[in-house]
Design brief:
The structure is a single chain. The chain is of the alpha/beta class and about 400 residues long. The chain is built from 16 helices and 13 strands. It starts with a helix and ends with a helix.
């Protein structure tokens, strides 16, 4: 007797239960916590308030009253959804206002807004290179860069992390290779918090006629004057061809963008697949993003407070005996080692009132699991002292310090 359709479907996916069990046994199963209120320095989870040390809400803008007001006003004027892709009937005047304001803020000729930073990478990389070209990618680049590179069908040459000499060797090997060359790096690496050596990469790209692209997801709102990003941080305006940014981290909302020349932006509006085939960012998101950019341009106090908090927290953690890796930014990895121990550390922190998730393979290499503490301008000194006391107690109980 032939199996029924439902039986066949169950058998075909039977392996999933085994795979999930293996993840749990290896300490790699991600327990997804559910927030029961707005994002902030303290959040409500499972009926109680816990100190939040794992969101990307660097500047505390995700629940800022000016952003909330802008979103509400946009809904009243433009409705809740765009109703179409940008290239047909989904482009509203709000989208254009945000793109003009972002370009002025970033110091570029133009910008184009996408539904997320991930979508921005999927749009720009395949639009710039194809199977007859070549990509040079840092070995620790974000998954969205990796996926964008794969979609392009271009050969991918991976250079050692933050190693200009390693990149130089690959570019030299390919000196006579035909086709376009694209060098891609994160601006700030999200797991370790280190910064790409962008000036050296810019010199190499110029010397070899390569396009230089930086994904500055964790640099927007964090590095540079008023949070203008890694290109501004290094004073490289005009030397980086493509800047990809996100609006869902320091700016506190949702969306992504590409900044660069007017020709680049116009080309992406014609050939960037997420722009053409996916509905536009909602009016509420666009208006809240515009309010966030205006706030940052006018006042850098939140950026300064973020860095003050980060320096204090890192210094105290190191004094307690924790290894915070090679971070140069508010991203603060607390190196644990094995995934099972990192998961146990995270659980104990949560039980004591600190929400800080463990990060393990495949997000980071095996044996380099860590707690990634994300510091915010919204944290008070008392918040940070509370977290440090809990880290101290749990670290000693687990014989990590």
């Amino acid at each position: 007797m032939c199996p029924s359709p439902s039986t066949g479907k169950q058998d075909a996916l039977a392996f999933l239960a085994d795979e999930l069990e293996r993840l749990k046994e290896a300490g790699l199963y991600n327990v997804i916590r559910v927030l029961e209120g707005p994002q902030g320095p303290w959040v409500r989870i499972e009926g109680r308030q816990v100190l939040n040390l794992c969101s990307n809400n660097y500047l505390g803008l995700a629940n800022h009253p000016k952003l909330r007001q802008a979103a509400c006003e946009a809904v009243e004027r433009f409705g809740v959804g765009p109703g179409a892709v940008r290239s047909i009937a989904g482009t509203m005047s709000l989208h254009q206002d945000l793109e003009r304001r972002l370009a002025a803020f970033k110091g570029t000729e133009a910008t184009v807004v996408f539904q997320s930073g991930f979508k921005a990478n999927l749009a720009v990389i395949p639009a710039l290179v194809g199977k007859d070209d070549v990509i040079y990618s840092d070995e620790l680049n974000h998954a969205s860069i990796i996926d964008g590179c794969r979609l392009s069908r271009a050969p991918i040459r991976v250079y050692p992390h933050c190693d200009p000499q390693g990149l130089a060797a690959l570019l030299e090997e390919d000196r006579d290779r035909p086709g376009r060359k694209l060098v891609i790096t994160d601006g700030v690496f999200s797991m370790d918090g280190d910064i790409a050596p962008l000036p050296e990469l810019a010199d190499l790209a110029a010397a070899h006629g390569a396009i230089l692209m930086v994904d500055d997801a964790h640099g927007e709102g964090v590095l540079g004057s008023h949070g203008r990003g890694v290109v501004d941080h290094f004073g490289l305006h005009g030397r980086v061809h493509v800047e990809v940014g996100t609006l869902s981290k320091a700016l506190g909302v949702m969306g992504g963008f590409v900044a660069g020349s007017a020709a680049l932006v116009e080309y992406l509006k014609q050939r960037g697949r997420p722009f053409i085939f996916s509905s536009a960012l909602t009016p509420a998101d666009v208006a809240a993003n515009l309010a966030a950019v205006e706030l940052l341009a006018a006042d850098d106090s939140l950026v300064r407070r973020l860095w003050d908090n980060a320096r204090y927290f890192k210094t105290r953690l190191r004094e307690l005996g924790f290894d915070t890796g090679r971070s140069q930014t508010p991203i603060t990895p607390v190196m644990i080692g094995e995934a099972e121990r990192a998961s146990a550390f995270s659980r104990r922190l949560f039980e004591a009132g600190v929400f800080a998730q463990a990060i393990g393979f495949p997000t980071v290499p095996r044996g380099k699991a860590r707690i990634r503490a994300m510091i915010s301008a919204g944290h008070s000194r008392a918040d940070l002292d509370f977290a440090l006391d809990v880290f101290d107690q749990v670290g000693r109980a687990m014989h990590l310090i």
